[in-house]
Hints:
Helix 3 (59-70) packs across helix 5 (128-149) and helix 11 (278-304) runs antiparallel to helix 16. This protein is 67% helix and 7% strand. The model has no long low-confidence stretch (mean pLDDT 75). The strands form 2 sheets. The chain has a 4-stranded mixed beta sheet with strand order 2-1-3-4, sandwiched between helices. The protein has helices at residues 2-16, 19-43, 59-70, 87-98, 128-149, 154-162, 182-216, 220-223, 229-259, 265-268, 278-304, 309-319, 321-328, 330-335, 340-347, 352-362, 367-395, 405-414, and strands spanning 51-56, 78-82, 104-109, 117-121, 168-171, 177-180. The protein starts with a helix and ends with a helix. The chain folds into 2 domains: 51-164, 3-Layer(aba) Sandwich (D-Maltodextrin-Binding Protein, domain 2), CATH 3.40.190; 181-414, no CATH class. It is α/β, with parallel strands linked by helices. The protein contains 18 helices and 6 strands. 32% of the residues are buried.
Amino acid sequence: MRNLLLVAKREYLEQVRGRAFKLTTFGLPAIFAVIIAIGYFSSLGIGSGRHLAIASDDPALAQLLRSRILGQKDSKATVDVIAPATPADRQQLVDKLRAKSLDGVLWVEDSASAQPKATYMAPSAGDFLMNARLESALNKALVDEHLIKGGMQRDQAAAISKGIDLATYQVKPDGAVIKSNAEASFWKGYVMAILLSMTTMIYGMNVARSIIQEKTSRIFEVMLAIAKPSDLLGGKLVGVCAVGLTQIAIWLIATAVFFATPLSASVMSGQLSIHISAIEAILFPVYFMLGYLLFSSLFAGLAATCETEQELQMYMPLAAAPTWLSFALIVLVMNDSNSVWSVAASLFPPTAPVIMFLRMASETPPAWQFAVSIGLLALSIVAVLWFSTKLYRVGILMYGKRATLPEIFRWIRYS
């Protein structure tokens, strides 16, 4: 045990003092924050300030459409109306588009029918946001016109075609009814699942690379003189796990500090309000530790059979397959978190950490499912660690001999 703790301490201090730890702990969150901020502020006013033209054979519809476009949030567009429009007007508008004096032309014809024909012409083919805005405005303007022709007042028609916002609430197991938002829940679960899988894979890879580096440098031959292989492997796993928990603790503290400031008001309220419950904050490091131990034990066994990092990289897609499977099930899990497939994937050890957090974002699973999930993960860690330790004992001292499948089984019998 003493040697195991010494190896764990060495691994922990070596990585915590390293430049990579400081960069990933403090630098990467800052970079992501800057990227998100740039993306947010650069997206403000997208599609605004455009000079558009509406051409229609129905002047009333054209005016309704113009008012709808100008009434859209952050529109700030200049809208000209040509109604009733003729084929000659169409050619003049095309010429203005070529001369860049107009940013877009919406042409509506056959408006007397139940399904008018509408086309949008613009110099850019990728202006999908403007296309969506015009399509929404056109549909609402058509509803307005039919209601007004039916005898309804203009303001009443506008109120009806505006539609209503559906407020959603979640009923908790204790009977509490709280306001919820499906989109916010999806993104919260998605981000937490990405963080969990990313940190688990990164630190699992760190263990594998460390084994390869020490194996190729022959430092193991010196270390084995004072410590058993199981102590070396165990110390490496414990030390790197402590590094990951330290990093997660720093992120959680920084998040708590952020939520305590007025700056978080826009995140904690509104349509995309994001709230992290106490159980999620507690289980995140638990599932990280269990997922890390499972994958790092697997990576350690793979690394012991490899001679170089390039050879190790060839096996990584196979080791990462459970993570890909987890994200392949994301739509199913978020839409029906209690389906048979969702429950089975949250209990299956390789996919349990990611799937369980995706389920928690939608609805907190029963306590027995957490217990079974964590129990199966623990048993899987013991089994994989037993297998990897046997490979590790022999593989770290094997040089120049390719580890074929029969050779690996021979290593297990020898150890």
